[in-house]
Every structure is written in structure tokens, then in C-alpha cells.
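#lab-general

N.A. 3:47 PM
ok so I finally got the sequence cleaned up, no stray characters, all 111 residues accounted for. can someone with queue access submit it? mine expired

B.Y. 3:52 PM
send it over

N.A. 3:53 PM
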Amino acid sequence: MFRRTFWFTAGAAAGVWATTKVNRKLKQLTPESLAAQAANKAIEAGHKLKDFALDVRDGMAQREAELDEALGLNAGTESGLPAPRVIAIENRNNPKHADRTAYSYNRNEDH
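B.Y. 4:20 PM
back already:
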């Protein structure tokens, strides 16, 4: 008699447990629940991307400071004035480039 009662109770408990588990899973698969899960994942991904961008920006600033120090570019900023910039200008009086500047080729003129 006790054996039958035990197995009946165990079967009923297993049925309740399985039904509860299936109902929870079905609620998770409703369109509203899926949309909420997707929105939460998107927000989480946005936060991770923002954190990554901030880490990259900090790393860039640190590396730029290291390079400025290694190249001695911080020496000119002590007076409050920016360091002079070196500007590369193409020498148009150079004979090597004279033929390029005198004639410009337009491929549409042939047609």
C-alpha cells in the first residue's frame, strides 16, 4: 500500500514539475517575450560597444602621449604655444613634374 502511494505521489510531482517547466518555456517563446529579450541583448551589446570605444580612446591617448614623449614633441608646448608644424609642399618648379602639370589627360576627350 505504501509502495503504491509513494509511486503515485512521485508521478504526480513529476507531472507537475514537467507541466510547470513546459509552461515557462512556452511563455519565453511568445512574441512579446522574444522582443523583450532581443531589446535587452541590443542594450547590452550597446553598452559593451561603448565600453570598448572608451577603452580604445584611452589607449590611443596613452600611446599618443608615449610617442610625443619619445619624439620630444612636448618640449615646444611649455611656453604655451603649439609646436610648429612641418608642412610638405610639392615643388611645382621641379623639372621632373613640369610635364605632369602642363598637360592633364581627360579620357573622355577621345570619344
